[in-house]
Amino acid sequence: MTLPRADTWPVVDVQIGTQESYNLHANTGDIVTFHFPANASADHSIVQSQFESPCTFLDEGFSSGRHPDPSSVFRIQLLNDHPVYFGCIAHCHEGEVGIINAAPDAPLEAFVTQAKSSTPDFSHVPDDATAYGGGVYGAVVAPPPDAPSEKNTPSWLIAVIVLGVVAAIVTFTYVMYRVWLRMRMKDLAEWRAMRSVQRDDDRTMVNSARSYAARESAM
């Protein structure tokens, strides 16, 4: 059984080797990703245990294997929100342990104290990573995902985009100007036509008046 893609579930990232103990909180379905350091001599690992025996490998529990590859990652997905206990094979007795969703009556501090006073027993931890553990499934060891490279937009592409936007604005402005000019010319032509008709009417009235006056004078 393999884990679903990490980008489809909430992920809790844990950098192993950066602190002595780990108090983690996660929800059902969350993926907990343990990132191992690049330094191979650090000899860190993740194995499942239980509160009563912090430094004893839990039968059929999950495990990253005895010696995970440097810079690798180990992922587990929670099937429920019950407490999950784990420790490091080489450093458990020094207090390098952790809890996911610690119970109120079994806090991390008590787990660390118990680990430091216990006798480690990791004799039956498998050399390779296990794919299942109590309360989780799909535990795997995998190389770290490639960091997404920053894709810088080329300057020439930016210039092309800017020129395109400017050209679009200029074109739009020109088209709107042509539309406005056409409407303006149409209105002006209509106004001139009306003025021409009005002048013709005025001339007709003047001529009529003159004709009438001439007839009156002749009588």
From TrEMBL:
| SUPFAM superfamilies documented for this protein | Cupredoxins
**Swiss-Prot/TrEMBL keywords:** Membrane, Transmembrane, Transmembrane helix
Q: Where is the signal peptide?
A: none
Its transmembrane ranges are: 156-177
Which InterPro entries does this one have? Cupredoxin, Ser-rich/MCO-related
Give the domain of life: Eukaryota
What name is this protein filed under? Answer: Cupredoxin
Q: Which organism is it from?
A: Exidia glandulosa HHB12029
